[in-house]
Amino acid sequence: MKLKRNLSAATGITLIAATAFAHSGAMGIVKERMDGMAAMAEVVKALAPMMQGTAPYDPDAVRSGAARIAAHAGEAMTSKFPEGTGGAPSEARPEIWQDWETFTGLAQQLEIFAEGLERAAENGVGGMPTQGGMMGGQGMMGGQGMMGGGAPMMSAEHIGQMPAGMAFAMVSQACTACHTRFRAEEK
Fold it and tell me: Known PROSITE patterns for this protein (predicted)?
């Protein structure tokens, strides 16, 4: 158990150091968006052990963390990606500007999912969605995958009625979908 905690702490320190190094050459809007992404990653990293049952569940931490993610998502996120701000040290792929509609759709989904997680904080972790998803095997978006962009089919109010673990999974999947499509691989 102690070894697991030490490894987790070492991983966290390494992540923070790598983030600081990657951000060292960033300035202006690129640094602002990198800082926003780092803030969201920090929240996910803090909440994940609660959702996995390896740390005590704290609804106040879930609520404040979800609010922090929501504050960096949606239009707050997309406004940090004006055309011409790609290239090093940015990790943004050119596909962001080539497929702006999908990118903005994912940013909006993240905001709604985070707002839903904030509302679900009092519900406890509950169950995590299975491979088939929550909507009759069609995935969390009722048949419209997150990679497809577009408007989410679920509201923050609906998500807020779910267990927080399910809402957290939706937030995490939105991050993964966006990173898979629009974030350059770290070198």
Answer: CYTCII
